[in-house]
Write a structure and sequence with these properties.
Elements: E1 6-11, E2 14-19, H1 30-45, E3 51-56, H2 67-73, H3 79-98, E4 104-108, E5 111-113, H4 115-120, E6 125-129, E7 133-135, H5 138-141, H6 152-156, H7 158-167, E8 171-172, H8 173-178, E9 184-186, H9 191-203, H10 207-223, H11 226-240, H12 244-252, H13 256-260
Parallel strand pairs: 2-3, 3-4, 4-6, 5-7, 6-9
Antiparallel strand pairs: 1-2, 7-8
Helix pairs in contact: 1-3
């Protein structure tokens, strides 16, 4: 399949999928999200692929959802239209990465913000470079109840999640490693090679055994309520679109949130 907003590399049993809207700091347009899922679907059925890496071209992993497109195409969606759009492209697509039967690694540099944070933390492992930072400022910039998939407390702990979401602040790569959200931090110049080396080491294991290990660990989290909690927050997130804060941000223009926070979108 030919893609316009992502690039796909093959390295033996490892497939690397790169978000490729570098000029937009890999902001996630509808086309990019659809292409990303198509690439995951291809990797799922390709028996030559044992591990998938998700990265971003250029200086940033992803600055989040494309708010310029959202302003132009979805600002006046009805509740039903917004729900259907976000359930498919934000919630369901994210859970498809979480449930992907093969090990996944997020390769993160620069901005990993809001929608970018969501995608990176759907992956099994995260390798970040020194320049990487993580943020979800939409409570401040858009009046929204965090992103559509509230993975935050599951990957960073409740108190740190509250601090990040309440304040809209950034977490550095090193801090993310200290709290267990990131597996390894490397120099920017080493990021691609480090992610590939880890993926190739994982790919040496029999794939069916890896699939069962991942399934069991994810089921352990489901037994603790992860999936139910994520589903409940999605409903809450939709409610936040009717709040005074969000309606004010919408009327100002959603794209203004980018200008208010140059490194942060939704």
């Amino acid at each position: 399949m030919t893609y316009e907003t992502i690039e796909v590399e093959n390295h033996g049993a490892v497939r690397r999928i790169l978000l490729a809207r570098e000029a937009q700091r890999n902001a996630q347009s509808q086309q990019m999200l659809d292409e990303l899922m198509a690439a995951f679907d291809e990797a799922r059925v390709d028996n030559s692929v044992n591990v998938v890496i998700v990265g971003g071209k250029g200086a940033h992993f992803s600055a989040g959802h494309d708010l310029k497109q959202a302003q132009a195409e979805r600002a006046n969606f009805t509740v039903e239209e917004r729900w259907a759009y976000e359930e498919l492209r934000y919630f369901d697509y994210s859970l498809k990465i979480w449930d992907f039967p093969k090990p996944t690694i997020a390769q993160v540099q620069g901005a990993c913000v809001a929608g970018g944070f969501m995608i990176a933390n759907m992956c099994d492992l995260v390798i970040a470079s020194d320049s990487a930072y993580f943020s979800d400022p939409v409570g401040h910039t858009l009046g929204a109840a965090a992103t559509e998939v509230l993975i935050h407390p599951w990957v960073m702990g409740a108190r740190k999640a509250k601090e990040m979401l309440f304040t809209g602040s950034k977490i550095t790569a090193q801090e993310a490693k200290e709290i267990g959200m990131v597996n390894r931090v490397v120099a920017d110049a080493e990021l691609g090679d480090a992610a590939l080396a880890m993926a190739q080491q994982i790919a040496k294991a029999p794939p069916f055994g890896l699939r069962l290990i991942k399934r069991s660990i994810n089921r352990s989290l489901d037994a603790q309520g992860l999936r139910t909690a994520l589903e409940a927050h999605f409903d809450t997130h939709q409610l936040s679109h009717l709040s005074e804060g969000f309606l004010t941000a919408r009327d100002r223009g959603l794209a203004n949130a980018i200008q208010k926070n140059p490194e942060k979108t939704a």
